[in-house]
Amino acid sequence: MTPAEMEPRIVRYGDLKPCNTAFIDAHTPGSDQKENFTIIGGGVSESKDQHVHIAIPHGFNIGAAGQPPKCRNSLHSHRTAEVFFVLKGRWRFFWGRWGKAGEVTLEKGDIFNIPTGIFRGFENIGTDYGMIMAILGGDDAGGGVIWAPQVIEDAKDHGLVLSEKGRLYDTRRGDTLPKGEKAMPLLTDEELKGFPEPTTAEVIPNHVARYWDLVALADKTPAKVIGEKGKLCDKPGFEVDLITRASATEKKHRHDRPSVLMPVKGHWRVDWDGGSTVLAPGDTMSVPEDLAHSAVPSMTGEAALYHVVATDDPAGPTWKG
């Protein structure tokens, strides 16, 4: 594969195209400065304005959220895995029906495999614009977002209505629901009972991995982060490894399905049969299936990247309580 052929599979951080109206809370004060990015796959955006950078199916989706300080993402849930790692800034993640069941603070490089089926939200508690990268299980990412009832109710006061098909309509722009289509119904009290309320102590040990702990594990071989034998032992339909300078090798390898490289620190030279490129933090590269490739740091200093590849495990609920 030539560099020109590979170029559409590389998304540079500086070329990311944000959507400011991706979700129902886009006009709600405190959440109205979010930027949503859909990098690989269709994602879960509710807006027709969302740009998709790479539409090739991978068995999972890759996205990102960029937010200024004190901006938050409202409480929602997914039917498949949602994994975040911090690219920039300092972030607080919180969960539960009202966001009070538990919380954790993540720094750069930390990764959080959020339990499936709980309401979760997050906010930038740093002093500068922050960015978190996301991996969502399945090609259809579980069919969309499930919002806590209060989020939908709050959005009505600011002109946004979500249809029963998961499409967003802005009444302030003159949008109306299509004829015969109803608004997304609120979850009933009975349905809400099906959303767990795990405590911080229950969640953190098996769902949060600190960057420096992973670096220590990656001293000779890549650290298994998410997967059957990962530090966060889970089978959400994909595996995640952390590769560092100490565990990188110039020996090429290949996968029988597309894989993704996402640097978090340092610059990385990726070589493949037919070409080479350099990735920086925030860049995302999709490597085609059966293409031999390698990745090694291209400069001195600290270097780490996350590697993601799909598995044959179903991309369904993984939280067992």
TrEMBL record:
Ranges for domain Cupin type-2: 69-132
One Pfam family linked to the record: Cupin_2
Protein name per Swiss-Prot or TrEMBL: Cupin type-2 domain-containing protein
Organism per entry: Albidovulum aquaemixtae
Lineage of the organism: Bacteria, Pseudomonadati, Pseudomonadota, Alphaproteobacteria, Rhodobacterales
